[in-house]
Amino acid sequence: MTTLAIGFLLIALLVALVLLGMQIAYALFGVAFLGIWIIRENITLAFRMLELTAYSGIADYLFATIPLFVLMGLLVSVSNVGRDTFEVAEELLRRMLCGLGVATVAANTVFAAVTGVSIASAAVFTQVAVPEMTRHGYRPAFAAGTVAGSSVLGMMIPPSLLLIIYGVLAEVSIGGMFIAGIVPGMLMAFGFVIMLMLMALLMPRFVFTDPEAARTRRLDQNGPKMPLRVMLSKMIPIVALVLLVLGGLYSGFFTPTEAGGVGAFGALIIALARRSLTRGKLWEVMKQTGAISVSILLLLIAASFYSRMLSIAGLPAAIADLVQSGGFTPLGFLVLYAVIILLMGMILDSTSILLIMVPIAAPIAQSLGIDLMQFGIITVIAVEIGLLTPPFGISVFTVHNTLDRSDVTVEQIFTATLPFILVMLAVLVLVALVPATATVFL
């Protein structure tokens, strides 16, 4: 049996192990170790490569980015910034068509710029936005779907953990990936807003329990109820943090790691100033930061080991030759790749898909002349769609479990997220056809 055939069998084994419930890190370690042992017929070499990978895999200063941004996101969540952001957006947009839906998207967009995790956004805004939308006559399932759909912005608008992981796996600049995510992230947010307004106009019964009463209530609302002073006190901390972190990063004043450190310190100051960080909460934040960071770093070590096994098997080069000999154009390859990612998103979580696919696909994309920044944005958008597609749909299940309402089923939330998926597919196609959407600021 050739090393190429062994490589394909090992990928199939990896997918099978993950589907059977084995944790992705253990599956990656096991398959990579077995592959090196079989291909080189030397178990000592397999142990030696595992030792070298464990030592060098995350030794770079760049990897401090992960715990720092995780810490910043958790501190922001503890300080109730998400609730304040939604309240201000609600105040400013309540007279707009589908105003609370638009406010949810706007608040998620701002919140995404400091958390970088979709699940955090989904959990926060389920508790904040859904009760308020339901009180104003929105259908509960639509409200839950709006939270789940807009929560995926956390994976695209920088800083994003998925962009960091992709940058590490594809060996491209993390700061560059953050910059590349700006335009697609904003296109997605504006697309969500336009879609929600069109739905409220053309399909009001899908949005509201009583469309006429909702329309009357919206038009009867007078001027601002929240004093300007209160509005500014709610928004200044989060806006200042976003400007500090992203402004310093994009201007070149901070490296990504330094931006994470500055952001974490700024988030700590905000939490202390709001007196929302008790000793118990601080301990919980530190524990969660450690647990999340260690799990991600372990996955990256496992992915590096897996990537070395693929290189030994010659798999990326062989697949690149197959793609080129098969007459695939760069666009044709992107279409095939996106379809595979979308299908995997139905059965695997986001990180698992990146760890399995990027080490194989990134070298192929590079050999076809595809910009790896553009390729990364396409990858993350396709992976994000998996957060909303059944049967896995982790964002949908997060919203459903946090909501805990018997009158809103998982199926109803999945249905309500379909328009968001269509918008994301449109942005995915746009980025594939117009590379400048991802590279214009690079």
TrEMBL record:
Membrane topology reported for the UniProt record: Multi-pass membrane protein
Keywords for this protein: Cell inner membrane, Cell membrane, Membrane, Transmembrane, Transmembrane helix, Transport
Transmembrane portions of the chain: 6-39, 60-82, 102-130, 142-168, 174-202, 235-253, 259-277, 289-306, 372-393, 413-441
Major localization class: membrane
A Pfam family matched in the record: DctM
Superkingdom of source: Bacteria
Positions of the TRAP C4-dicarboxylate transport system permease DctM subunit domain: 12-436
Compartments where found: Cell inner membrane
Family that this chain belongs to: Belongs to the TRAP transporter large permease family.
Function: Part of the tripartite ATP-independent periplasmic (TRAP) transport system.
Assembly behavior: The complex comprises the extracytoplasmic solute receptor protein and the two transmembrane proteins.
Protein name per its UniProtKB record: TRAP transporter large permease protein
Organism of origin: Seohaeicola saemankumensis
